[in-house]
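Supplementary Methods. Inverse-folding protocol.

Structures were first reduced to a discrete structure-token string of length 1178. This string, shown here, constituted the complete conditioning input.
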């Protein structure tokens, strides 16, 4: 049998013996699965296709054109199309007595490659025409297209793999692993090439090309040119293999011949590094094929005469903490990993992007993010974030992190041989002005200690200072930290224990198997038994007692477990998910109790499950209390990427609480009170208190509050008795229970807006307070409005939304808070204006200090001087004046320029960046541009990559544009003054312009950014195969020799012209290269260029090949397409920034309003921003 899943419309095509071919369509989502009794999927379509007489061998989908292609063992190929919900036969093809071994549609659906058993390979179009064919003297058994359809890989049964381009030209022969060369009877079964998640620049970790052999050997590669592939030898016999849609998991349909019949078939899952993940046993005698759904959450298997549908539990990187869900997904726009922080109470989502995410963990109100550094893949970035995603503290580890965990004080990371403990710092509210960015310069004081796992002798752990590459025999396999204990498990099963905060080494224990996940239960008393729950590599859940003798808990072992969760309140309560089933345990045994109440028997199953029986379950567990489990449909959330509703959560109550809730709904207060007496639990008493309050039964409510020892609520009842108005009493009860909306309505209906305002003030609903105050006419409205606006601003500031915070502080006239907001937003112009209106001494003093810290010494002086006008404290003013004078003497304008020159000469990139920020804050944009321009010319930055060089030059241009705006404002303001002559204005402007050593920088501000943009664009066209456009851009780059190294430009020109057959242009490029290298001692490869030129022009004549031309608009002479200058009249042509097209028609040219660069209107129409300066395309 063979099977294939259509990802567009959920069609599944399955073929079998004697021409049996079926197409079915499923209609079951993750949420529907929980509500079905059997877990079976609904079938929307079940159609049998008639047209084959032999056994079906190959089934492939063309999802773009909605076609199904099938081939049988008699050589017939049928193409099926969908019409009005029914599949019809469109065309039939047959090659006389030759059968199809493999066939594959290209990713764009326009071409199909078919391999026959006689070695013939045919590539055809979607309409049935043959494009090209090749005859290979081997039995081709596997066909695969590259992710961008540029290459075709043809695999012979012997293991040889031939690489062709999409036009039929042989490219190379792919090397198999060295380990396979000595094998006998090796047989290739499959080649699978997934689309990488990341761009090529960041695809270092994910190997997407898999070559699988029947004997269990496989080779994983980044691409066909990978010189360091990953090889694996699996103890299985492979039948076929399929990548999941994201290319992160490879499913191998395999069998173990040594096992008995009926137990041999399995699905063997590995990751993109060749590491085993899981093994799934397949019922039946023989499994033959498998296929993934579009989300990678289901796998369909063809085994014997059955179709088996399995659910896949993806191991997402996510956590739930403090009513916040932090999760990650691959961004479809930027191709990197996006981390989302979703506050489920306010329904606000905050995003942050990283290139390669490794771990997410959380504890209480902080989350841990571990990801590799963008510029150095060998270093890992550890970041502590708040619930809004705002960074709190960070550190960098210079070795690969395999495991990570945290408690409320520290983070523990580990590889296989060592672990490191990092005590992070949190930002308190008192440190208002000390932002996260200001702490980067003081990393020396951080506390991070590394330990070797072998140094575990009793006593305090000793910091490891030996060689970083020291290996241990028994490596680390899992870690877990609580506030008091650090647990580290080894592959042998040994459990190492350390006690915080001294990291005292405790006596190790021995686990029964190797854990992959472990967690300790909570502690609510000093006598709580500490129990460790862990899942091993076989997905068996066991319990281990750390108290007394430290032994395995007898009688408890659960199989096929994929997750578990301890209760945060009850140390004996444990939730376990087994396959599609959720079970809740209390202790290790089921204790079924019968409660006789009001002549009715209620069966309470405290320790077995929440419901009458274990329920079907497909969600992820967030938090388990003692009476309810909160779960989330994480598959749907990650698929949607951004939450669009609150339907992702599912609250599951205990049966005990369900019975009590039913009494409350029926308003049976006496029955509920009796039930609470017999089943004493705080949640039931709380439910009784709330229900009694709503029914105004204060006697029962008081009884419940006494049982709960809630004396504040009892005091509330005393206050409630004094209220005579029944409506106001009802409103007070509703507000006490949290139903603010209904309580406010009652207050307004009773004409008590003052109480409605006080209610919203009490609960911090300041936006509603503003709305009510606007409708209320009173003397104190202005003061209360200012208070409300200030409170809203504080809420925005706490979420790091300083833009909105500044807006509300302005409405509230909160000067001191506004100073802080302006400073954080770098709005120094607004801060200057604010000084004029300030009269408070402390506010002026604070402003002056902030001005001086930002390098704005003139503004600081003005603020200090104004302090004298509004404060009579002569001693303090005298001290401030002395500080100011000392500050101004050491920071004159000339000295600032001299310091900038010293910083530039020191080549310290961090100092230069800080100096640029200071100049920018002080309004010295020209000085900042000069520093950045000098930075771009340094050798260290030039080797950092084209993208970074372009970004630096774009920043230089933007700073110069801002400088020019300031000059225009300055010029217009000076014209208004009668005593200012034109000559004086001109001299001032010239004086400003002379601040740059190179005056061309202001005249051609965008030249550098333009040069590196076209250099990057040319490289992109070269690697995508558009050689002629790359050659045109290479010619255009000759105008930027003062920006880009000429050796790089002419090397690029020689490369592209040689590939395009333009050997006269190639010869000129080599001549230029020889001149450049011969006159420069830094290029020792002069002879190499000569030797290379000799080899090329020995075989090719020095002339350009015939190419299409276009007429010059000035002199009408014919110009080759790759030229950018007319040889007759020297007229130069501009190129489109997007497509590299030569711009000839003025009516079709688009001009950016900011950078004034040009593009073709059709090419830029699909983009929302300018590709050079990122200005919004209107």
């Amino acid at each position: 049998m063979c099977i294939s899943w259509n990802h567009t419309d959920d069609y599944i095509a399955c073929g079998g013996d004697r021409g049996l071919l079926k197409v079915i369509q499923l209609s079951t989502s993750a949420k529907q699965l929980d509500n079905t009794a059997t877990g079976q999927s609904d079938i929307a379509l079940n159609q049998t296709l008639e047209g084959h007489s032999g056994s079906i061998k190959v089934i492939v989908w063309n999802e773009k054109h909605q076609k199904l292609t099938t081939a049988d063992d008699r050589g017939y190929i049928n193409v099926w199309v969908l019409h009005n919900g029914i599949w019809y036969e469109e065309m039939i093809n047959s090659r006389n007595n030759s059968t199809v071994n493999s066939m594959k549609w290209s990713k764009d659906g326009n071409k199909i490659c078919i391999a026959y058993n006689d070695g013939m390979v045919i590539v055809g179009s979607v309409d049935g025409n043959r494009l090209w064919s090749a005859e290979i003297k081997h039995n081709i058994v596997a066909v695969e297209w590259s992710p961008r359809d540029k290459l075709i890989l043809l695999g012979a049964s012997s293991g040889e793999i031939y690489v062709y381009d999409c036009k039929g030209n042989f490219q190379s022969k792919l090397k198999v692993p060295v380990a396979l060369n000595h094998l006998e009877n090796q047989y290739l079964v499959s080649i699978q090439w997934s689309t990488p998640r990341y761009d090529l620049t960041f695809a270092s970790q994910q190997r997407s090309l898999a070559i699988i052999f029947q004997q269990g050997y496989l080779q994983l590669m980044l691409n066909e040119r990978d010189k360091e592939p990953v090889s694996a030898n699996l103890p299985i016999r492979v039948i076929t293999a399929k990548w999941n849609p994201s290319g992160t998991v490879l499913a191998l349909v395999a069998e173990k011949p040594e096992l008995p019949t009926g137990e041999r078939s399995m699905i063997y899952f590995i990751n993109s590094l060749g590491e085993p993940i899981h093994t799934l046993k397949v019922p039946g005698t023989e499994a033959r094929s498998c296929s993934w759904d579009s989300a990678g959450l289901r796998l369909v298997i063809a085994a014997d005469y059955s179709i088996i549908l399995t659910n896949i539990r993806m191991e997402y990187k996510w956590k739930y903490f403090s009513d916040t869900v932090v999760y990650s997904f691959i961004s479809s726009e930027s191709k990197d990993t996006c981390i989302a922080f979703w506050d489920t109470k306010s329904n606000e989502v905050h995003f942050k992007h990283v290139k390669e995410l490794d771990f997410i963990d959380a504890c209480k109100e902080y989350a841990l993010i571990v990801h590799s550094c963008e510029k150095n893949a060998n270093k890992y970035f550890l970041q502590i974030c708040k619930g809004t995603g705002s960074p709190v503290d960070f550190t960098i580890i210079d070795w690969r992190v395999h495991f990570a965990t945290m408690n409320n004080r520290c983070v523990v990371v580990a590889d296989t041989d060592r672990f490191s403990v990092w005590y992070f710092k949190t930002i308190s509210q008192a440190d208002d002005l000390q932002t996260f960015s200001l702490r980067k310069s003081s990393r020396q004081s951080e506390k991070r200690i590394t330990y070797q796992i072998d140094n575990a002798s009793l006593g305090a752990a000793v910091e490891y200072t030996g060689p970083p590459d020291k290996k241990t025999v028994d490596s680390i396999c899992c870690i877990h930290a609580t506030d008091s204990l650090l647990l580290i498990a080894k592959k042998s099963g040994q459990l190492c224990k350390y006690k915080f905060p001294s990291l005292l080494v405790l006596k190790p224990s021995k686990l029964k198997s190797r854990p992959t996940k472990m967690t300790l239960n909570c502690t609510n008393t000093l006598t709580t038994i500490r129990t460790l729950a862990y899942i091993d590599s076989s997905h068996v859940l066991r319990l281990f007692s750390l108290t007394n003798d430290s032994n395995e808990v007898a009688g408890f072992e659960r199989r096929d477990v994929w997750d578990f969760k301890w209760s945060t309140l009850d140390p004996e309560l444990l939730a376990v998910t087994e396959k599609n089933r959720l079970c809740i345990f209390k202790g290790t045994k089921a204790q079924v109790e019968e409660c006789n109440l009001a002549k009715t028997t209620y069966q309470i199953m405290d320790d077995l499950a929440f419901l009458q029986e274990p329920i079907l379950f497909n969600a992820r567990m967030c938090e388990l209390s003692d009476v309810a489990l909160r779960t989330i449909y994480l598959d749907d959330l990650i698929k949607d990427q951004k939450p669009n509703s609150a339907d992702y959560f599912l609250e599951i109550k205990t049966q005990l609480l369900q019975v009590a809730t039913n009494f409350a709904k029926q308003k049976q207060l006496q029955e509920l009170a009796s039930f609470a007496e017999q089943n004493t639990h705080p949640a039931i008493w709380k439910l009784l208190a709330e229900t009694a309050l709503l029914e105004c039964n204060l006697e029962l409510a008081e009884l419940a509050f006494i049982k709960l020892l809630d004396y504040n609520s009892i005091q509330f009842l005393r206050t409630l008795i004094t209220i005579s108005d029944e409506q106001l009493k009802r409103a007070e009860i509703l507000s006490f229970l949290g139903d603010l909306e209904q309580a406010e309505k009652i207050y307004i209906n009773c004409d008590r807006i003052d109480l409605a305002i006080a209610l919203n003030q009490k609960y911090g609903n300041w936006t509603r307070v503003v709305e009510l105050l606007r409708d209320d006419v009173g003397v104190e409205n202005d003061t209360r409005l200012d208070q409300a606006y200030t409170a809203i601003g504080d809420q925005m500031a706490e979420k790091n939304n300083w833009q909105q915070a500044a807006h509300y502080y302005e409405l509230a006239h909160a000067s001191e808070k506004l100073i802080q907001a302006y400073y954080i937003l770098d709005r120094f112009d607004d801060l200057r204006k604010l000084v004029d209106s300030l009269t408070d001494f402390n506010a002026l003093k604070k402003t002056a200090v902030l001005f001086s810290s930002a390098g704005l010494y003139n503004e600081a002086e003005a603020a200090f001087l104004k302090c004298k006008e509004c404060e009579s404290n002569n001693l303090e003013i005298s001290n401030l004046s002395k500080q100011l004078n000392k500050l101004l003497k050491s920071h004159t304008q000339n000295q600032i320029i001299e310091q900038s020159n010293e910083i530039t000469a020191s080549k310290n990139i961090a100092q230069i960046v800080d100096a640029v920020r200071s100049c920018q804050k002080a309004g010295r944009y020209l000085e900042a541009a000069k520093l950045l321009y000098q930075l771009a010319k340094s050798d260290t930055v030039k080797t950092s990559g084209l993208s970074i060089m372009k970004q630096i030059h774009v920043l230089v241009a933007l700073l110069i544009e801002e400088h020019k705006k300031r000059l225009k404002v300055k010029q217009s303001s000076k014209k208004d003054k009668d005593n200012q002559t034109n000559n004086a204005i001109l001299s001032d402007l010239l004086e400003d312009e002379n601040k740059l050593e190179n005056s061309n920088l202001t005249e051609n501000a965008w030249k550098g950014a333009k040069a590196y943009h076209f250099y990057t664009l040319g490289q992109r066209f070269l690697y995508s195969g558009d050689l002629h456009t790359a050659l045109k851009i290479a010619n255009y780059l000759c105008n930027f020799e003062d920006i880009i190294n000429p050796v790089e430009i002419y090397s690029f020109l020689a490369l592209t012209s040689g590939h395009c057959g333009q050997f006269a242009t190639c010869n000129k490029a080599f001549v230029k290269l020889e001149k450049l290298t011969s006159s420069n001692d830094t290029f020792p490869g002069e002879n190499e260029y000569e030797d290379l030129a000799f080899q090329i022009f020995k075989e090719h004549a020095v002339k350009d090949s015939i190419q299409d031309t276009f007429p010059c608009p000035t002199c009408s002479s014919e110009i080759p397409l790759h030229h950018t200058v007319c040889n007759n009249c020297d007229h130069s042509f501009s190129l489109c920034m997007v497509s590299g097209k030569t711009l000839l028609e003025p009516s079709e040219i688009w001009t950016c309003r900011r950078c004034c660069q040009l593009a073709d209107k059709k090419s830029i129409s699909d983009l929302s921003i300018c590709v050079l300066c990122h200005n919004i395309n209107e």
